[in-house]
Amino acid sequence: MTAGDVLDANVDLKQPDERERRMRGRNRALLAVLLGLVALFYAITIVRLGGG
Amino acid sequence: MSELPSTALAPYAGAAVGDYVQILKPRVMSLVVFTGFVGLAVAPGHLHPILAMVAVLCIAVGAGASGAINMWYDRDIDAVMRRTAARPLPAGRMMPGEALGFGVVLAVGAVVVMALAVNSVAAQLLALTIGFYVFVYTMWLKRRTPQNIVIGGAAGALPPLIGWAAVTGDVGWGAVALFAIIFFWTPPHFWALSLYRAGEYAEAGVPMLPVVAGARETKRQMLIYTLMLWPATLAPWLLGVAGSVYGLCAGVLSLIFTGAAIRVWRDAGDRSARQMFAFSLLYLFLIFAVLLVDRSGGGLP
């Protein structure tokens, strides 16, 4: 991402605490998605192996 | 060359989780998921509940991915229209590349998982739906022709076919009937909206029918499509996909929908168009809900 992109998109530039709060939120969401995917692929594998 | 403002080099906070959810167009996604689920539920045959859940999840993620890529491409016109100006991209809460990357990853992921877990026909239909929505509707038709939502509406009509194909591995006549319902429902639904948003569409340069052909012609075509919706709506009953309860309810709902189109045709103002838009959502939901209930209630011949 270049500084030009930032200007083009008129993106809000946040204070560090806001930045950290958003990063934490994204990290937690990503963790939930990854755990969900693990569970999903486990379930798919079990069903497929069982001939479902 | 002018120097960048010092603030431009400050760290970008990145989009919030809520913004990522918003670019998936959750309200559109909910209707897509519901119609896809009904297609899956009424299809003849059996699919393991876990795999059925995976199929519905893939349809949902694919729909969300289409929405994200659509928001990436349309960010310039979204900024002009009041209805869409607060979306994460035009509001500056998300970088365009983030939305595009997010959409592409979800689209590829949804198709791959559908192929691995369910079957290749459902995966191909899902890929076709995403590709049609992104390339045919969003990039090609939307800004070029007033028939944008007529042809582009095919993308929104495909989810029941995907659900059906997830169970059967092919596309039967019943699935085509479900496709036809959404296909013929889409023009009156979107044109009702565009009748009272015509000014915004004109400002954004989107050639919706009321902008190009005027309100009178739009209302005439809305009525025609509403009449064309009749055989499509009754087709599941005539084909034996649904029973007589569905047939009766579909007839009554179509009568009300046609009445709404006639009211729009006769009304010089916006009020009836707003009411028809709201009812169109309820109409589609009820048609598919009754189909689901009639099927699960053993109303089949």
Descriptive notes:
The complex is a heterodimer of chains A (about 50) and B (about 300). With about 50 residues, chain A is an all-alpha fold. Helices cover about 80% and strands about 0% of the residues of chain A. Chain A contains two helices and no strands. Chain A has helices at about 5-10, 15-50. The N and C termini of chain A lie far apart (about 45 Å). The mean pLDDT of chain A is about 80. Chain B has about 300 residues and is mostly helical. In chain B, about 75% of the residues lie in helices and about 0% in strands. In chain B, α6 runs antiparallel to α8 (about 160-170). Chain B is flat and about 50 Å long. The interface between A and B is medium-sized, with 28 and 29 residues.
Question: What does this entry show, briefly?
Answer:
The complex is a heterodimer of chains A (52) and B (301). By secondary structure, chain A is mainly alpha-helical.
Poorly predicted tracts of residues of chain B = 1-9
Overall morphology of chain B = flat
Helix and strand element order of chain A: HH
Order of helices and strands of chain B: HHHHHHHHHHHHHH
- Euclidean distance between termini CA atoms of chain A: 45 Å
What is the CA-atom radius of gyration of chain B, in angstroms? 20 Å
**Count of alpha and pi helical runs of chain B:** 14
Poorly predicted runs of chain A = none
Q: Mean of the pLDDT scores of chain A?
A: 79
Strands of chain B, count? 0
**Protein chains sharing the most extensive interface:** A-B, 28 and 29 residues
Largest sheet of chain B: none
Task: Please state roughly what percent of the residues of chain A sit in beta strands, choosing from under 5%, 5-15%, 15-25%, 25-35%, 35-45% or over 45%.
Answer: under 5%
Classify the helix fraction of chain B into a percent range.
Answer: over 70%
Strand content of chain B: under 5%
